[in-house]
Amino acid sequence: MLACQNLKIEFDRKSVIKDVSLEFPPQRITAIIGPSGCGKSTLLRAFNRMHDLTPGARVSGLVTLSGKDIYHKDEDPVLVRRRIGMVFQKANPFPTLSIFNNTIAGLRLSGLRNRALLKEAAEKALVDAALWDEVKDRLKSNPMSLSGGQQQRLCIARALAVDPEVLLMDEPCSALDPIATAKIEELMFRLRERLSVVIVTHNMQQAARASDRTAFLWMGELIEEGETEAIFTTPKKSMTEDYITGRFG
Amino acid sequence: MDAPAIETPEMTPPSLVLQILPEGIRRWRSTGRGADRLFRLVTGMCAAAVAGLLLIVILFMVKGSLPAIRDHGLGFVLSPDWDPTNQKYGALTFLFGTAYTSLIGMAIALPLGVLTAVALVEILPRGLAKAISLAVELLAAIPSVLLGLWGIFELVPLVRSFEIAIYRSPLGFRKLPIFSGAPLGVGFLAAGLLLAIMALPFILSVSREVLLQVPTAQREAAYALGATRWQAIRKFILPYSWKGIFGAGLLGLARVLGETMAVTMVIGNTPQIKASLFASGYTLASVIANEFTEAPSDLAISALISLGLILLVLTVLLNAAARLMLIYLNRRMGTQGAK
Amino acid sequence: MSRSHQLRKLHGRTMEALCLLAALAAVAPLFAFLWHLVSMGAGALNPALFTQLPLPPGEVGGGLKNAILGTLLVVGTATVVGIPVGVGAAVYMTEFARPRMAATLRFACDVLSGVPSIVMGLLAFQVMVRPMHHFSALSGALALAFIMLPVVVITTQEMLHLVPHSLREAGHALGIPAWRIASSISMRAAAPGILTGAILSVSRIAGETAPMLFTAFGNPFLSLDPKAPIATLPHTIFTYAISPYDDWHRLAWGGALILVLGILGATLLSRFILWWHQRGLNA
Predict the structure, then answer these.
(1) Which of B10, B18, B25, B43 has the most C C-beta neighbours within 10 Å, making it the best mutation to test the interface with C?
(2) What confidence tens digit (pLDDT) does each residue in A143-180 have?
(3) Cα distance from A128 to chain C (closest Cα, Å)?
(4) CA A169 from chain center: how many Å?
(5) In chain A, which residue's Cα lies nearest the Cα of B220?
């Protein structure tokens, strides 16, 4: 299980996430909601150590995966990222690789060379990402020829191919139309069976219909978290209610 | 030949301004739009001067070459004989020298430039990267003649001791064709090294820009998949940049082809075609520099101008190809970003 | 998995070390050059270098007064011609020309900036030295103007592009005529950048030698006559460098130090102006 305790994140001494503690149970979709600039994405990127790449970023507190601190000095961020997949706001397939090679890029990075195994893994990941039927006849073509929604599902397949325990999704539908969005949400429900999904979204409807648990973040602080139904029907804090009913944000 | 000299566009605008100015002011007062037209006209003429310069340089270089080409035919490009006292002119020796030294220079500068660009963009902290960029920029500002001066007094002795080491090596390197010949210091290797130094800033700055254009999203995608930094560089960032880096190489090559002074000072100026790195040679640019003012006849001058024409054609083609490629790449990247 | 991962990490480290080594190698020539220049040039630097004329070969002493003044004259003349025309062209390209025309002109500039300086020297020889039947300071200046023109256009244009379009639109909305917008708004906003480009292009031509060989030609005596052959610093350095006399080598290094101080000083100055300007814009 992925969890964080007293997590604080600073950029050049400016505090962006203040003391957040959260748990992301397996086989659950957790949505992180909040107004733009509240630190949702910043929080998410702490879970696969993407902040290691930003000069001036400082993460303190505890982030654990199956009880082990992923920020421990003996932990290699590269290996952490192989266990925790990530999908970004804008689909970012590698334009230099074919659809097939995009799907297995992560496996190649970890040194897998066996053609048959790679083929099998690619098909499995593309089926899991509900993209197989649309691309099976053009695995060799350039991913930029796909539609936006297809590209995003290719990125999901790419993340799934290395069989992660957690999938982090940073506003994965914000650039997509409603039909493509519905497909991705459907996909999330199926993925829930085997991993835990954390999705950041500014779209309250999406959080309400496509998540099991919801965490509401405001100005870098966790205001409230719990079962999605409870958050949207009987919020404990008035601020949460104000936000979900559209009084601010 | 005389008349066009006076009509060089660079020379005309100031006098034309004086002619047009009073007229412009009168029109401005009467219609209010005269000043606008005048300003447009004057700046437009400046722009025409720039375009005109390109035409004029091509025109004059062709015109100046005609006597030699008429006398020797276009075959002079592939003739190895160069003997001005007997009116024999062939460009092959110098083409070889230019090609060989440029090849050495690029073979060193291209990998060095690309690896340095990777270090600056992907590895080093920003402050240090900036300091190195500045240092390389200053290197680019050093005139060719001064690098040649340094070449004569420091690089050539250094190259010579390397050549002596090879010459004396018990492993018998001197039997290899590229290491054969006397260890003189001056020659293709010294010239190629100086060209590498001159091409490096150029290749570095273009490849650095190309690497900086790789979208953050691509880097993040690579790292999020569990790539090590070198894997991200090697498998995703460099493949994304190859075409741009190729363009950088073409621009660098165009730069190096026409380099004159530094090469002239260290290449030995001997018209010969030798495979050895240690041999003396001669390039298109250095033979022009050395023999132009001592040319025994108009035909000799024309032959030297025709060597300049070869340089012009090569550099214009290379530059045009590289620029068109970079423009095309930018456009493609642009549409990709918008998708 | 773990063992192969360790190997991959080791490979990555090695390759990154190679990149750092390359960066070191890239800056090494600059420092080698500067070190040699200062150690050779400092000894030669004395008032005589600026106040005396060269002595006949073999005699010890003398200076580079004629070459220094000659460079100032030739470069100054080239600048007076090259900068206004270049800036004018850039203004036309950014403010008035249609996109396709502007792109074509820009392309011409890019190609021109790649033409070897020795070819520009041959051009100046043909358009000026030949009709006038003798080498001259003026033809040298013309060659340098040819070389600097595309550089000025490109840098000026880049600076004008940095001026926000909204500024121009604001001008149009106030009913200010186009030429006023170009001259008082765009050019003024870009002025520090244009100045930077001008300094850089001057420092680029100041060290040009190849085109001087058959235009300015060189002159062992002091001459400031634009129609006569004239000595320039880079050309004199070349002549002295390849001569067999130790004292001429000394003078060459002294001249080199003067030239580098001027050029590096100008380069740093231009960077400083730009930095100052951008700091002002950001504040």
Answers:
(1) B43
(2) 999 999 999 999 999 999 999 999 999 999 998 999 99
(3) 25
(4) 2
(5) A50
Shortest CA gap A89–chain B (Å): 9
With beta carbons under 8 A apart, name residues in chain C contacting B9: 85
Residues of B in Cβ contact (< 8 Å) with C249? 153
Q: Do B326 and B71 form a contact (C-beta atoms < 8 A)?
A: no
CB–CB contact C8 A79 (8 Å): no
Give all strands of the β-sheet with A166-170 in edge-to-edge order.
Answer: A84-87, A166-170, A196-200, A29-33, A213-218, A221-227
Run of H or E residues at A157 = helix A148-160
Residues A13-37 have pLDDT tens digits of 999 999 999 999 999 999 999 998 8
Residue ranges per structural domain of chain A: 2-244
Q: Which of A109, A144, A155 sits opposite B226 (nearest CB)?
A: A109
pLDDT of residue A69 exceeding 80, the answer is yes
pLDDT tier, B23 (very low <50, low <70, confident <90, very high otherwise) = low
**Interchain CB contacts (distance < 8 Å): A and B:** 67
DSSP single-letter state for residue B55: H
Q: Per-domain residue ranges for chain B?
A: 3-72, 84-338
* pLDDT tens-digit series, residues C54-63: 988 878 888 9
Q: Higher confidence at residue B333 or residue A236?
A: A236
CB contact under 8 A, A78 and C5: yes
Give contacts of B217 with chain A, Cβ < 8 Å: 88, 90, 92
For residue A23, the cross-strand partners are: A3
Q: What is the CA radius of gyration of chain A?
A: 18
Q: Which two tokens stand for residue C78?
A: 């080239």
Q: Using CB atoms, which chains have 3+ pairs under 8 A with A?
A: B, C
The torsion of the CA quartet A29, A199, A39, A239, rounded to 10 degrees, works out to -50
Residue of chain A nearest C7, judged by CA positions: A111
Asked if A50 lies within 8 A of B215 by C-beta distance, the reply is: no
In contact, C268 and C261? CB cutoff 8 Å: no
What pLDDT, on a 0 to 100 scale, did the predictor assign at position C282?
63
> What is the SS3 assignment for A166?
strand
Task: Considering only residues C12 and B11, tell me which one the structure prediction assigns the higher pLDDT.
Answer: C12
DSSP B301-317: HHHHHHHHHHHHHHHHH
Residue B339 pLDDT level (bands cut at 50, 70, 90): very low
pLDDT at B20 over 60: no
Q: Which of residues 1-40 of C touch A (CB under 8 A)?
A: 1, 4-5, 8-9
Look at A167-181, B32-46, C231-245 and tell me which has the smallest mean pLDDT.
B32-46
Q: Do A110 and B126 touch (CB under 8 A)?
A: no
C259 and B144 within 8 Å at the Cβ level: the answer is no
As for the ipTM of the complex, it is 0.93
Q: Are the beta carbons of B307 and B288 closer than 8 angstroms?
A: yes
Class of domain B84-338: mainly alpha
pLDDT score of C174: 82
In angstroms, the separation between the Cα of residue C85 and the nearest Cα of chain B is 5
Q: How would residue C162 be classed by pLDDT, with cut points 50, 70 and 90?
A: confident
CA distance B251 to B322: 6
Rounded CA gap, C88 and B14, in Å? Answer: 12
Q: Do B225 and A55 touch (CB under 8 A)?
A: no
The 10 Å Cβ neighbour count of residue B328 is 12
Class of the CATH domain delimited by A2-244: alpha beta
Six token digits for residue B165: 């080491």
Neighboring chain A residues of C4 at a CB cutoff of 8 Å: 110-111
Q: Which residues of B touch C117 (CB under 8 A)?
A: 258, 260
> Mind listing the pLDDT tens digit for each residue in B309-336?
999 999 999 999 998 888 887 776 544 4
Instruction: Determine the residue type at B161.
Output: S
